[in-house]
Structures are given as structure tokens and as C-alpha cells.
């Protein structure tokens, strides 16, 4: 019989809680990958899975990802994640959310939850009525930290992108450089504004035409067909829309020397990190460069500082990237593999 410990995605997880509340129909998996650096922090996903094994696998994989992300962002937090197993209609009741919140509370702060796919800010507010161990609650207008993560993520991506430009092209600013941005959503918009302020030449693409037109009008960017944006000739390509866009096929067609974007899980497989390296394309590991949002929300939860600390932590992103690229050059391993190894060391493993 397969056990949890023999699953391919089991990675020394400290605890995996299988939560059941029969009266409300709640079924959830709370995976705590590591509490080495602090409470296991990571959002709750509400999703219909084909089977229980897929739900457990998702919780194992995502919680490990949170350990790595929080560690590399220099946060005093470990990594965890919850998946709530929704039925086919994704029925979510207040009673079910309350039962889930009580389960989080029983873990005594060793796990801290937040919003993820399928959950809303309203759900987080409801959870906060039963437990203090929830982050990402709405903040008052003008609050120093917390609130919309997009601008903070974009600032981290912008600073990381500039670090990549400095390393690859030896330039201290983006003046005249061509930046191709996939997406015109929350992060992409703020990123495009930062780049336009430094007189970069922008190309942008989004399947939502109204959004891309508005952003182009504001920043002077050229609109590109979404099918072409990754492959146009550009100094930097910044994926800020979808995951798994860097594949054997797409990497072969890239016309850039730098990939620096916000999207999660950009590499379709681990080999794609090596493929980028083989083509001499400098890669900014996604969970390192896109940590600005989590830095902001965590600083609000931890109450360990204000806007200055958020800024300081985001400004450490380029330093972290430089460490990764230095180690990559020294070891010959690709930056994504180096980032994982570095994260493992930070959480006392590896
Ligand atoms: P968003 O939903 O605001 O924007 C995403 C945009 O991508 C949308 O405008 C959508 O129309 C567009 N899009 C979808 N398919 C596309 C395609 N094929 N080609 C071009 N555009 C396409 O999301 P966001 O908050 O800006 O996040 C962007 C990415 O960054 C996501 O992958 C997200 O997971 C990741 N991320 C975001 C944050 C954050 O703070 N918001 C933090 C970390 C990672």
C-alpha cells in the first residue's frame, strides 16, 4: 500500500493534517512542510480534485513551495498550504469555513493561512472570527503595510529585472532597452509604469484587449499579439500572466537574453531551467523575484515593522538573485536548481 511517506512529492513534511468535519462536509489537507524559520505560512486553496490523492499531492507540493519562497524572501516564516476538497459544484458554506477556521486555530499558530485560488477576502474575514492565524485581511485606506499585493510584487520584479540587466548587459538603467511584458494585469501594469519611468521601450500583450489598450495608452507601449509576445526580439521578456510558459518548444524560440517576470511556476519542467542556461538566457527564479506581495502581507501579519521593513525586504530581492547567479556560475548548475538548493539550506535541510 502506498503511504504518505512514499508519495513522490513527500519531502520531509513536518506534519500533514487530514481534517474532516462531517456535519459541514469539510474535508481538507493542511500540509506543514517546515516550521524551521517560523510558523508554516501559506494560503488555502478551495478546489475540486478528481481524487483524494491529487489533493494531497497538491498540498505537499504547494507547501514545499511556500517554505522555499518564504525562506528566500528572508521572512521569519516556514511553509504550509491547505487544500479544501470542494465538491463538483464547489459548494462553500459559512459553516464549512467556520469549521476550517477552528481546525486552523487548533494548530495553535503553527500554521497561518491566507487567500488562494477559490477563496476570497470575505472568506478570510469569516476565518478571522474563529482564529487569529490568518493573514491578508483588508487594511484601512492609507495603512502602511498590507492590502493589494500587486504593486509590491511589481516593485520586486522591477528591481530583480534591473539586477538581471546589470549582470547581463552591464547597464544601470533601462533607458532605451526593449522590455516585452506578457500580461497587462495587476503586476504587469505596475511593472510597465516603473519601466516606462526609466524610458524603457515597452511591448505588451494581453488577451483582455481593453486592459492592454489602456496600459499601452498610459505607458506608450506597443501592443503585440499574445501569441508572439514571448518570442519577439527584446532585451528582457517578463512573463506576468500564466505559469508553465517556458517549455522545450518555447525556449527554443526565445529571442531574449533575460527572463524576469512575476508569473508563478514559469518552468514547465525542471529541465527547462537547464534549457534556458544552455541558451545563455539569464533566468530570475520566479518564487524569488515575485516575493514582494508575500513580503507585504507577511509583514502585516507579523507586525514586525512598517513600510520601511517591507521596502527593505523587497530591496533584498536583487541581492538574493545575485547570490543565486554567483552560485550558478561557480557550480555550473542552473539558477532554478541553485535557488531550490539555497532554500533547502535556509530551512536547515540539504
Ligand atoms: P492578473 O489576473 O491581474 O493579470 C493576469 C493577466 O494575464 C490578465 O490581464 C489576463 O487577461 C492575462 N492573460 C491571461 N492569459 C494570457 C495570455 N495567454 N497572454 C497574455 N495575457 C494573458 O494577475 P496578477 O496579479 O497581475 O498576476 C500575474 C501573474 O503573477 C500570475 O501568474 C500570478 O500568479 C503571479 N503572481 C502575482 C502576485 C501578485 O501579487 N498579484 C504575486 C506573485 C505571483
From TrEMBL:
UniProt domain Glutamate/phenylalanine/leucine/valine/L-tryptophan dehydrogenase C-terminal: residue ranges: 147-350
Q: What is this protein called?
A: Amino acid dehydrogenase
Question: Lineage of the source organism?
Answer: Bacteria, Pseudomonadati, Pseudomonadota, Alphaproteobacteria, Sphingomonadales
Q: Which domain of life is it from?
A: Bacteria
**Organism expressing this protein natively:** Sphingomicrobium clamense
- Say if the entry is tagged with keyword Oxidoreductase: yes
Q: Which family does it belong to?
A: Belongs to the Glu/Leu/Phe/Val dehydrogenases family.
Answer yes or no on keyword Oxidoreductase. Answer: yes
* Record keywords, A-Z: Oxidoreductase
Family annotation (CDD domains): NAD_bind_Leu_Phe_Val_DH (cd01075)
Amino acid at each position: 500500500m502506498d503511504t504518505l511517506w512514499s508519495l513522490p512529492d513527500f519531502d520531509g513534511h513536518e506534519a500533514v493534517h487530514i481534517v474532516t468535519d462531517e456535519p459541514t462536509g469539510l474535508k481538507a489537507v493542511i500540509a506543514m512542510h517546515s516550521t524551521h524559520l517560523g510558523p508554516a505560512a501559506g494560503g488555502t486553496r478551495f478546489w475540486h480534485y478528481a481524487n483524494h490523492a491529487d489533493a494531497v499531492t497538491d498540498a505537499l507540493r504547494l507547501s514545499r513551495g511556500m517554505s522555499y519562497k518564504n525562506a528566500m524572501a528572508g521572512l521569519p516564516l516556514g511553509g504550509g498550504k491547505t487544500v479544501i476538497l470542494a465538491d463538483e459544484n464547489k459548494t462553500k458554506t459559512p459553516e464549512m469555513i467556520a469549521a476550517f477556521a477552528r481546525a486552523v486555530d487548533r494548530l495553535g499558530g503553527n500554521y497561518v493561512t491566507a487567500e488562494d485560488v477559490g477563496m476570497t477576502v470575505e472568506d478570510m474575514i469569516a476565518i478571522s472570527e474563529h482564529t487569529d492565524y490568518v493573514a491578508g485581511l483588508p487594511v484601512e485606506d492609507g495603512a502602511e503595510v498590507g492590502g493589494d499585493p500587486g504593486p509590491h510584487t511589481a516593485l520586486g520584479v522591477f528591481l530583480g529585472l534591473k539586477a538581471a540587466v546589470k549582470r547581463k548587459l552591464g547597464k544601470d538603467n533601462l533607458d532605451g532597452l526593449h522590455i516585452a511584458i506578457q500580461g497587462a494585469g495587476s503586476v504587469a501594469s505596475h511593472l510597465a509604469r516603473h519601466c516606462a519611468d526609466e524610458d524603457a521601450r515597452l511591448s505588451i500583450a494581453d488577451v483582455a484587449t481593453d486592459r492592454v489598450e489602456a496600459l499601452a495608452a498610459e505607458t506608450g507601449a506597443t501592443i503585440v499579439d499574445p501569441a508572439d509576445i514571448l518570442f519577439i526580439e527584446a532585451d528582457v521578456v517578463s512573463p506576468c500572466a500564466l505559469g508553465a510558459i517556458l517549455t522545450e518548444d518555447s525556449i527554443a524560440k526565445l529571442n531574449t537574453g533575460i527572463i524576469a517576470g512575476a508569473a508563478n511556476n514559469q518552468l514547465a519542467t525542471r529541465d527547462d531551467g537547464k534549457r534556458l542556461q544552455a541558451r545563455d538566457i539569464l533566468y530570475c527564479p520566479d518564487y524569488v523575484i515575485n516575493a514582494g506581495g508575500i513580503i507585504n502581507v507577511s509583514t502585516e501579519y507579523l507586525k514586525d515593522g512598517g513600510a520601511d521593513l517591507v521596502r527593505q525586504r523587497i530591496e533584498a530581492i536583487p541581492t538574493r538573485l545575485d547570490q543565486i547567479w554567483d552560485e550558478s556560475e561557480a557550480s555550473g548548475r542552473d539558477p532554478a536548481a541553485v535557488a531550490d538548493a539555497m532554500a533547502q539550506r535556509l530551512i536547515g535541510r540539504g
